[in-house]
Amino acid sequence: MCKTVIGFGSPNKAGTHDSHGAPLGEAEVAATREQLGWHYPPFEIPQDIYAQWDAKEAGQAREAAWNDKFAAYAQAFPELAAEFTRRMSGELPADWQAQAKAYVEQLQANPANIASRKASQNALEAFGKLLPEFLGGSADLAPSNLTMWSGSKPLNEDPAGNYIHYGVREFGMTAITNGIALHGGFLPYSATFLMFVEYARNAVRMAALMKQRNVFVYTHDSIGLGEDGPTHQPVEQLASLRVTPNMSTWRPCDQVESAIAWQYAIERNDGPTALIFSRQNLAQQPRSAEQLANVYRGAYVLQDCDGTPDVILIATGSEVELAVEAAGQLTAAGRKARVVSMPSTDTFDKQDAAYREAVLPAAVTARVAIEAGIADYWLKYTGLNGAVVGMTTFGESAPADQLFKEFGFTVENVVAQAQALLK
């Protein structure tokens, strides 16, 4: 800690709020100069002081010495030098794309109904073996966030480790990972409950502002958290992340979308990515090869009808299976329904106009968005004449199944909302 005095040197305003929010003023500046013994004109720096602070010459010498040392190292250890160069430049291993694609295809071919936080851990297991630059951590929630994999080695046990137990300090954790990202050579990821992004808010915003390659893992993503109650149930947090400039946010619906979300976060090099995962198990959805490829585009047609749909159901995460079931009932009632899974709204928004029109045709105005987060965000996709099955209040403390029913996340309510639009 460094004890300071605000406005130091000002004879009349030092140590007061007057020196904080307003200029000192011409008279007080003159008095301050006199008290400090500073007799040089504004913006003039004496040469002897400037020379002490000018680091260019010394820096050039140190850089040249480092380059010579690294050149010798590269001659002695060419493979290690190449790996160092790859990591510091932010490039991925040469076989990354092929390995990631094979893993995603394997998941699609072998369905599993698991929580997306578990799917995230499985993705870490698969991708961690390919990426020695991974440097993970959690704010005292590793067993709940599931962010440790078989290759994780805590730094407090091994100086060459790749996992940091940050303790209950979400802001500190996120700020530290920003520093790691700025240094280069590592791909940091950190984790907590989605609700606790509130404690990390400024550092999350700075990651986006600085366009840092940083991955934020947020689990326990909705009222599905259950009995912990509204203090721990996120409502507005998803929307707040989505509207943060340069933040990419993903809320996957099953193990396949979870792996692709991780792939996207790893491949992104111009900003941070927030990965939002569930506590509860999620049903895996069937997909064609084309649908599988389109997940990476942020939104895609998961289930379709013949011809132009009467209604489009848009959903993310745990609510996708709800949309699929509702579409089945609408179809049985003679309505043509399309289901759009939209794991990443910002990624979808960046697609070309033709693709966005193919997924959400402007002519189809009957749209229902379903997400266990704040409802208002979805009006940009449903329009004012559409419907949103979402949250308009904070949650409650009760078993998850009861909460979803209480807040309208049921097949019957989704069908009713869709039918009301079609009258």
UniProtKB/TrEMBL annotation:
Q: Which UniProt keywords apply?
A: Calcium, Magnesium, Metal-binding, Thiamine pyrophosphate, Transferase
| Chain ranges of the Transketolase-like pyrimidine-binding domain | 114-284
Q: Which reaction does it catalyse?
A: D-sedoheptulose 7-phosphate + D-glyceraldehyde 3-phosphate = aldehydo-D-ribose 5-phosphate + D-xylulose 5-phosphate
- Enzyme class at the top of the EC tree: transferase
Q: Which cofactor does it need?
A: Mg(2+); Ca(2+); thiamine diphosphate
Q: Does the keyword Transferase apply?
A: yes
Q: Record's CDD domains?
A: TPP_PYR_DXS_TK_like
Q: Which GO terms describe its molecular function?
A: metal ion binding; transketolase activity
InterPro entries in the record: THDP-binding, Transketo_C/PFOR_II, Transketolase-like_C_2, Transketolase-like_Pyr-bd, Transketolase_BS, Transketolase_fam, Transketolase_N
Q: Name one GO cellular component term.
A: cytosol
Keyword Protein transport included in the entry's annotation: no
Which Gene3D superfamilies has this protein been placed in? Answer: 3.40.50.920, 3.40.50.970
What are its E.C. numbers?
2.2.1.1
| GO biological process entries | pentose-phosphate shunt, non-oxidative branch
Q: How does it assemble?
A: Homodimer.
Q: Can you tell me which family this protein belongs to?
A: Belongs to the transketolase family.
Which protein are we looking at? transketolase
Q: Which organism is it from?
A: Serratia rubidaea
* Name of the coding gene: tktA_5
